Amino acid sequence: MSILKPTSALVLLMCVALAGHAAAQNNPQTPHLGTPMSKTEVAKWDLTVFPDGRGLPPGHGTAKDGRAIYLQKCASCHGDEGQGATAEDLVSGPHPPTADNPSKAIGSYWPYATTIFDFIRRTMPPAAPGSLSSDEIYALTAYLLAANKIIAESDEINALSLPKIKMPNRDGFIPIDAKK
């Protein structure tokens, strides 16, 4: 009789485990945390822009157009010329950072021009991220690149030209997740 109790308990435990496994097989959305996102909701957040330009939307802009947008939307935090204010400086010139000048401004630090577009689109302006049109973001990106003396003020950037811009610090990083 003492052998039957452990055997019965083992059989019961196996039945519970099998029932749980069968339930998981019938409902792959376990563990039922949160609410699944719709395709529209996923598309709203699927904004990744890669260094080679994948993910850039149609549009275009120039530094001249970007200067007006910058003064309206960015200067109160980053200063009238991108020199920094309550937020980080954005303009430093096209020189990679050194031990004496470890600036993380766009011209000295950022390895890819497409990252500027991606960052602005995701985060700026802080009170209304995602509110700028693609043309406005291309124009702001052009303005910041021209202010850092990486492109000419008359250069137009778009999804084809932006990934071709070689940033001064492109080779200053060691890739850890991409094969060359």
Automatic annotation (TrEMBL):
Cytochrome c domain location: 61-148
Regions that span the bilayer: none
Keywords: Heme, Iron, Metal-binding, Signal
Annotated signal peptide: 1-24
Keyword flag Signal: yes
Keyword Cytoplasm listed: no
Gene3D superfamilies reported for this sequence: Cytochrome c-like domain
A GO MF label: metal ion binding
Disordered as annotated region, ranges: 82-104
Protein name: Cytochrome C class I
Phylogenetic lineage: Bacteria, Pseudomonadati, Pseudomonadota, Alphaproteobacteria, Hyphomicrobiales
